Amino acid sequence: MPRLTAFEQVSLDGFFVDARGDMSWAHKQDPEWNEFTAQNASGGDGALLFGRVTYEMMAGFWPTPQARETMPAVAEGMNSMPKVVFSRTLREASWQNTRLVKGDMIAEVRRMKKEPGPDMVILGSGSVVSQLAEAGLIDALQIVVNPIVLGRGRTLFETVKKTIPLRRVGSRPFGNGNVVLSYEPS
Fold it and tell me: What gap in Å lies between CA 113 and CA 162, rounded to an integer?
């Protein structure tokens, strides 16, 4: 059965977006980090899950010539992978290989996890992560802690109302100051 992983960037003080909803602070370019993200993006037959805001941001960049020029391997992976966007307000999802789901996100993810298919990854999409974590549907978390203090913003699990115990299954520091912490529910 498919596994669901959330790959998320947070500041040292725990915010996934700043007070303006921006996360450009999380996009550091260096060879080691770029190689890591290229390997993740070329993960094969996985499927990407998004909320509307993250989907619109990603769909506005990855299909562009700039993305293909600056990060060709990541752009290829992002554009070719199957994608699911959860939104009640989006009218259409025109990014290559994207399916729009307007109904019950938790029921749809439960269905997707019961059927044979590729593993799934949530990128960004804080409200999606919160809801699916609270429903017990996330199998793994990869949290990238960025060496920056934002002071204000939104936390990744701000709507979670119950305790979710986790165990660390890995960590990896990068020369740019990022640290990837990997967790699974305990």
Answer: 22
Model confidence over 115-169: pLDDT tens digits?
A: 998 899 998 888 999 999 999 999 999 999 999 999 999 999 999 999 999 999 9
Nearest-10 crossing angle of helices 126-134, 105-114: 70
Counting as low any pLDDT under 50, the low residues of the chain are none
**Which token pair is 168?**
């660390």
Q: Which long-range contacts (CB under 8 A, 24 or more apart) does 160-169 make?
A: 160/130, 160/133, 160/134, 161/134, 162/134, 164/133, 164/134, 166/141, 169/140
Q: Are 106 and 128 in contact (CB under 8 A)?
A: no
Burial environment of residue 61 by CB neighbours within 10 A (0 to 12, 13 to 18, 19 or more): middle
Instruction: Tell which phi-psi region holds residue 99, choosing left (phi > 0), alpha (psi between -120 and 50) or beta.
Output: beta
Which domains, from first to last, does the chain contain?
A: 4-185 (3.40.430.10)
Look up tokens 């020369």; give the residue: 175
Contact 179, 173 (CB under 8 A): yes
11 bridge partner residues: 146
Q: Which two tokens stand for residue 59?
A: 């769909």
Helix-helix angle 31-41:72-80, to 10 degrees: 20
